[in-house]
TrEMBL record:
The modification FMN phosphoryl threonine is found at residue 174. HAMAP family: RsxD_RnfD. The gene is rsxD. It is found in: Cell inner membrane. Belongs to the NqrB/RnfD family. Pfam families: NQR2_RnfD_RnfE (PF03116). Keywords: Cell inner membrane, Cell membrane, Electron transport, Flavoprotein, FMN, Membrane, Phosphoprotein, Translocase, Transmembrane, Transmembrane helix, Transport. GO terms for cellular component: plasma membrane. This is Ion-translocating oxidoreductase complex subunit D. The chain crosses the membrane at residues 24-57, 69-89, 95-113, 125-143, 200-220, 227-245, 257-274, 286-303. The complex is composed of six subunits: RnfA, RnfB, RnfC, RnfD, RnfE and RnfG. Part of a membrane-bound complex that couples electron transfer with translocation of ions across the membrane.
Amino acid sequence: MALMRITSPHAHGPQKTSWVMQQVLLATVPGLIVLTHFFGFGTLINVLWASILALAFEALALKLRKRPIGFYLGDYSALVTAVLLGIALPPYSPWWLITVGMASSILLAKHLYGGLGYNPFNPAMVGYVVLLISFPVQMTSWAPPRGAGELPGLMEALQACFTPGNYDGVTMATPLDVLKQNNSLLVEDLWQANPQFGRWAGVGWEWANIAFLAGGLWLLYQRIFTWHAPVAMLATLTLMAALFYDGGSSASGGSPLFHLLSGATMFGAFFIVTDPVSSAVSVRGRLIYGALIGILIYLIRVFGNYPDAVAFAVLIMNLAAPFIDQYTQPRTYGHVKSGGGD
């Protein structure tokens, strides 16, 4: 009797790499709109210039590796890296800063390890950290948000990017920076003395975080990733902030709501932590991975030297992801746990 030739059971669905990347790009639109409204055209120019560079560097790397350029450019992964890095950079970043960041992301963090699927670290965060360590002045020069200063027009924004030596822009510390460096004022007084503080966190920052939260919920609805890592990250960050919050003294590390709506919290939770290549893959592993990132973000923000610690926390846990997966592997289907029976 002939046996049926069947393969092992596999799940088939429409989630090709290009479709997933397109959904991620779509989910960033609300955050980009809010950032543009509050900070001007700077972030849009960052993203557009980074996208051009990403495609160029990707094509160069593929050509050097003798891989089909059109096929790999069509997966949109380079564009996703460009958009994520462009959003993370300060608005009105100079062209050369974005160029160095994209070269680090695409050539160093991605293709040096073999391309998409082989990179152990999140490419966008590698580019961001390279820039933050190498060019701290440019990476901490944030434009004042709408309501706290005058927004540059489109031509001024282009001048700031491509002829930065001829542009004299106004910069302002972020709310995380201000709170970090405060050593004399109560949080309530600090809020009144600094125009960049909003109702809960910072002017523009809180609404940008809400917009990225909306984009993240869309990705969850589309089942691009599971809830485990982002929820674990946000839950532990909230818990840490609640445990150490002292009510608003001059030594305060900030309230839970402040940490949730400041900096890159929601952007990191739903667009960085959920990277399927560099994160943990098991269910328990994702919970542990996300929870440890949340703890690290709070510790680095409050006790470290970098106020917005998402990139450093993610890269540290990228390094630990294989170790986490090693000890959180699910039981093989059809097998029982050791000592659980015959």
